[in-house]
Amino acid sequence: MDDRPHKTHRPATSGGKVAKKEKGKEKQHGFNDKAFAPMSGRNADRQGRRNVERDQTRLHVPLVNRTPDDDPPPVIVAIVGPPGVGKSTLMKSLIRRYTKQSLNEIKGPVTVVSGKKRRLTFVECNNDLNSMIDIGKIADLVLLMVDGSFGFEMETFEFLNVLQSHGFPKVIGILTHLDLIKKAATLRTTKKALKKRFWTEIYQGAKLFYLSGVINGRYPDTEILNLSRFVSVMKFRPLVFRNSHPYLLADRLEDLTPRELVRTSKGKCDRTVTLYGYVRGTNLRLGTKVHIPGVGDLDIKDATALGDPCPLPTADSEKRRKLSEKKKLLVHAPMSDVGGVMYDKDAVWVNVPGNFTRGNNEVYQGEGEQMVMDLQDVNSTLEDAVSKSQIKLFGSSSKPLTTDSAVNQDIDMDDASDDEDDDGTDDFNSQDEEEDDQSGIDSDEEDEDNLFDNDEEIHRGIQNTGRSSHRTSIRTLPSSSKKQRADIEYADSDSDLGNDDDLDFGGKRVRFGGDEDRDIPSDDGGELYEGEDEDEDAHEDEFAPKWKANLSQRAEAASSRKARQKDWTKLIYSTSLTAEEILHGEKQEQKSDVEMDEDDLFQVKKTTGDDAEALDMSKESVEKEELKKWEDEDMLESIRHLFITGGDGPLGEGGQDGEQDNEPFGADDEDDEDEDAEPQPSSSNTTTSRADALAAKKAALKRKFDEQYDDPDSSKLDFYEEKKDEMARQLALNRAEFEGVDAESRALVEGFRPGVYVRIELTNVPCEMIENFDPTYPIVVGGLLPAEERFGYVQVRIKRHRWYSKTLKNNDPLIFSLGWRRFQSIPIYSLDDHSIRMRMLKYTPEHMHCYATFYGPVSLPNTGFCAFNSLLGDTPGFRVSATGVVLDIDRSVKIVKKIKLTGVPYKIFKNTAFIKDMFSTALEVAKFEGANIRTVSGIRGQVKKALPKPEGTFRATFEDKILKSDIVFLRAWYSIQPRKFYNPVSSLLLSDKNKWTGMRLTGQIRRDEGIKTPLNVNSTYKKIERPARRFNPLVIPKKLQASLPYASKPKRMKPQQHETYLQKRAVVMEPEEKKAIALLQQIRALRKDQVARRKEKKGEKKVERQKKLVREEAKKGEKDKERKKDIMRMAGQKSKRDADMEDGRGRSKRRKT
Amino acid sequence: MAQIGSIVQFSGHQHLRQRLVLSILSGKHVRIDKIRSEDKNPGLRDFEVSLLRLLEKVTNGTIIEISLTGTAILLKPGIISGGPITHDCPLSRSIGYFLEPIIMLSPFAKKPVHLTLKGITTDEHDLSVDLLRTVTLPHLQLFGISDGLELRIKRRGAAPGGGGEVQFLCPVVKQVKTLNFIEPGKIKRIRGIAHAVRVNPQFSNRMIEAARSILNRYIPDIYLYSDVYKGDESGKSPGYALSLLTESTTSALHCAEAISEPGVAPEDIGLKATRALLAEVNRGGCVDRKHQTLVLLMMVLGSEDVGRCRMGEPTPRTIQFLRDVQSFFGTSFKIVSADTSDPECTHLLYSCYGTGYVNANRTLA
């Protein structure tokens, strides 16, 4: 459709439209300045501020993205939600959308190609908290599914909190089961409420999708299409932790343990396991450890890059804008049942529709099926096939390899069809040529041919030896260059194994196409062959090929030819030559070669005699001879070009140097180009090169001048841009440095890049991992940094989660999710006490951070973590108990707790007192001499000296006289150490993966075992009987009283004996007065009556009101009852639905939040 | 589970320092046996024991086990703690022997290192304190370790008697920068320090004269300082030395030095130092031979990017160092000729992919 040319648009040249356009054009001449100009100065100011602020919000801390832009690993899309919410349905719908295939049963990760530049790995997360933690650490995008008809559940919030502490990936919310809400208004309010909650949890404006209902077991196609569009344009910001650790999500697991070993040990032996997956994060390097959460720390025995099972469309296969339909069919899901291929734990099953009968042509037969069918067509035995088959080692080989049928080792090679063999040899050949390109700088054509012949002969020789070492080395694994097809495992068949892998001669890596090796003066490759062959000669004397005849001469010639161009990398890393032998002449090398011949069997004894007393020193001893030559005047002149005054040197590089004199250090990119560009002109014509150099110099000067004077702003970038540029430059350099290097040495130097599909071989894997393998639990392989393999005390800043209902107690075990690891440890909580000491806390403070210190594997400072008291599914309430960040790593800790030593005075002088019961020996007192002490009443003092007589008593002085009843105490600090307890959460090793229990609390053990808490009699509460204190009256002696001044004398008077006047007098009233009093009495009586009546009335009203209230209460209660009924009915429906939907593996809902 | 870090095994007494340093940095345990086991005087020497003691002081939680005969040691490294430390170096080796590994470790300590070392400041085996101050420390600046990096020479102490004292201050860094140093540039200045203790102060001037007689022909920017310490600051034995360095336009440093020998005139010492310097300059590269290991180590410890450096041929010590780095960190270098078009080019381009080593010891403020 696209190829047909469209009719071009022809604008009208006359008529009304044209006139209208013309008219419009008259009005605006170009850009209208006034259109966006602010009206007032204030507005202008405001607008300017706003723009600047907006610019600042755009900025983020520049982070290096270690994931390569070309061929990135698939994006991990995790589908998370409570059971019964529709996770599997969504995954099926999405996979259907991308691959047009319906998967019946999805287990483990599924990788699909979603676009020209993007692949997606879908992984479904079950409801186990362990899985949620692991998924949270690796997911790039989380599709968080929420049952719209039910609301958010606790697990959702727990998962969000886990995400928060491990770097927040992108989250898209998806509301399902919205079809269950029948009323439109309810639907609207539900959506609104859920959206509001979701936004507060993620960020304002976070994307929330609504999926209405299920049609044909899938969500509606349009809704899925919309969702997939959002997924495909999603941008990801690198997360710090993932950007510094390599990791992979294993999508396939194979057990390589010998069956016999498993059988004899009844399956209890440690296993050798291979895991497959895309490398993500940073480069995965050999020699480091990996951690598999739920299993433990494991050593990588071997890692190989495999062909991509789900490759991105290449540039030439996809010229078009859209992904072709063919590519859409690619899906890689080894653990699920995809396209008829089932990867079981340790076997691959091919499922062919119909049956394997010949002539069954109605079913479409793919390539794989065809191959299986073809197996039935065999009409000759294997032996016949072997005897007939012809193997050409190289495409250029003139005649096929002739085999001796008695040599049974060839069977390894021959049980495959011919075309595959051709493949293999082609590969081989191409690789040989590649190597030639690398090494053959000066090797002329004829020489190359010669070498080729030799190679062939070497191979033939090896084929004939029949030694087991060769055979095993041939049987290695499929290598990177071989394209492995996604869904067919036949590529693993023996025939094409290892023909482009290295052969292993006694632990040294030597390439088969060994012409490169022969270039090395040490000629370890060539000589090695010789060595090997000498062994062979022992039993095959007559076999002496002609290539050996002149080998030594050729080697010599080669070494003299390439004396200068040593392959240092190879010499240093892949030979056992001593440093002196590498640096100096060949005589030593010859000697060493002789030694090396037998180092298959024997350890070479190093000749350490002469340098036994060589000192480990950094200054080389200068040789007299070398210094002597500097007495020569010519010699002195010869290095003049190395100085700035020296001008151009003797070589072409002199000009280059001169040109870069003025360049500041660090302008390396330009230098690179110069280096590349320089040699050609210098070789062709000196005059042009000089002119060029001059021009370049001028250009550089001009640039410098411009930078200084012309426009200082234009060339200057702001800090942010500068940093970003720097990063981009470094990344470009990283890419460029290993561009031309072959894959193997590249893996040696830089490891496996992100995006490479690797196979990791792990040894000593606990057998339970294999026995209890469940593909629905994700297997994450996290690479560890060297520091993270160590153990130590980790100090963290921690805060109890505000939704966690209990406080955290000191010395209670806590399960941490820190780095890749999940483990239980025992923290000690502390707070900084005035920057003097770290003081232990018994409980975590409310609404505040505190420190915690625990023993465990080290993580880098600034790593976030979250902690749990229990990971079990049936734990009530919110399970994330604390979150925090790592602050410090150490091998010792200094946390103290307060201890008060108390004593009582037994003899008190003026300001001095003798204190007993604080210490038990004089030695203890001596330790505390000069310490501050205090009484309860606040009188301060000091410990002076131990008293000789009652042991442990001492003399102390105070600032005032203390009382006999005072308690004296000494405040001291007692240092405590966290317990060295580390218990990794080995959930993947259990058959019941969500039932992991670590160390329990004492109380819990007692509860579980039904043991009563032991009761100390002294700890029981008894009634405290405090006798009332009797104080004697204060008696002042008469004598003293007499001498006191009047003011201080106690005033003591006898009570009055006689009646007073007021009591004695009689009252006689006037008639006027009498009248007035009577009136007053009457008024009072009236008033009293009035008040009484009023009160009565109020009482009546009160009773009435009470009645009314009771009536209202009753009404309200009725309403309440109805509402409760409603809720219960809904809950009942919901649980009924759950029971219908659930397949019984997840746990039921806990409660609505 | 897997509490015991993997053990790296070595034998022989050679390259002890770099192996200990690599072990402490990588956290891998190291076991070195057959230490002079064939010797008449088997086992560790006093300076090696002293070095182990110093490393114990600098670190926290390090466990060092020395076998009964002293021919085998096992080092379980702890964390590098730093802080104020004082150490008396034995008179069998100079301060440089002890300071070199400390310089490699101290940027990755928990607290800034403030180390006081007492002993011999200059001898014929190790870098003198002058070179450490003027050449080694600037090399650290290439990796972004600069603020507060200082070596103070409090007292000088010549060979048999010693009595010198230096203070080394080093800041801590989170991560070292990736090096990209491929342009050696041209030499723009020459500096030098001639010192004389407990001898005629004129000796240093005589050395300077001799050196200038050769160097004056190249560039005018030559400053050779005469550094005379007197009284208590001059240590216990007489001695004098001349250390020279050249700096290029891209701040590549090359250095050489010569120290007093009995029966040799100061002029000859001056000439010897100068000729050694010219030999070093002639070898070229961006880093001289004495500092190859330091620079390569810092490149390995850089961020996960490609670091490049142009140097001359590796010394035997460097070759062993490269192998040791591979066994500790698993990092190998790509070493190719710096100029592939020129067969006469002796310079090599060392490039490696940094391990992304982050100073885990550093406390988060």
From TrEMBL, chain A:
Which Gene3D superfamilies does the annotation name? P-loop containing nucleotide triphosphate hydrolases
List the keywords (alphabetical): ATP-binding, GTP-binding, Hydrolase, Nucleotide-binding, Nucleus, Phosphoprotein, Ribosome biogenesis
Instruction: Tell whether Zinc is among the UniProt keywords.
Output: no
Biological process GO annotation list?
A: endonucleolytic cleavage of tricistronic rRNA transcript (SSU-rRNA, 5.8S rRNA, LSU-rRNA); maturation of SSU-rRNA from tricistronic rRNA transcript (SSU-rRNA, 5.8S rRNA, LSU-rRNA)
What name is this protein filed under?
Answer: Bms1-type G domain-containing protein
Stretches for region Disordered: 1-69, 396-449, 461-543, 605-693, 1091-1153
Sequence ranges of Gly residues compositional bias: 646-655
Stored PROSITE patterns: G_BMS1 (PS51714)
| Family note | Belongs to the TRAFAC class translation factor GTPase superfamily. Bms1-like GTPase family. BMS1 subfamily.
**A GO CC annotation given for this chain:** small-subunit processome
Where in or outside the cell it occurs: the entry states: Nucleus, Nucleolus
Query: Its principal location?
Result: nucleus
Renumbered to this chain, the Polar residues biased-composition regions fall at 396-408, 680-689
Regions of biased composition (Acidic residues) lie at 411-449, 489-504, 522-540, 656-678
Biased composition range(s): Basic and acidic residues: 19-32, 43-58, 512-521, 616-631, 1091-1128, 1135-1146
Enumerate the spans annotated as Bms1-type G domain: 73-237
> What GO MF annotations does this protein's record show?
ATP binding; GTP binding; GTPase activity; U3 snoRNA binding
Give the Basic residues compositional bias ranges.
Answer: 1-10
Reactions performed catalytically: GTP + H2O = GDP + phosphate + H(+)
TrEMBL record, chain B:
Q: Which GO terms describe its biological process?
A: endonucleolytic cleavage of tricistronic rRNA transcript (SSU-rRNA, 5.8S rRNA, LSU-rRNA)
Task: Give me the Gene Ontology terms describing cellular component.
Answer: nucleolus
Give GO terms: molecular function aspect only: RNA endonuclease activity; transferase activity
Pfam families registered for this protein in UniProt: RTC, RTC_insert
Q: Which UniProt keywords apply?
A: Nucleus, Pyruvate, Ribosome biogenesis, Transferase
Q: Which residues form the RNA 3'-terminal phosphate cyclase insert domain?
A: 183-281
Q: What NCBIfam families does this protein map onto?
A: 18S_RNA_Rcl1p (TIGR03400)
* Protein name (record): RNA 3'-terminal phosphate cyclase/enolpyruvate transferase
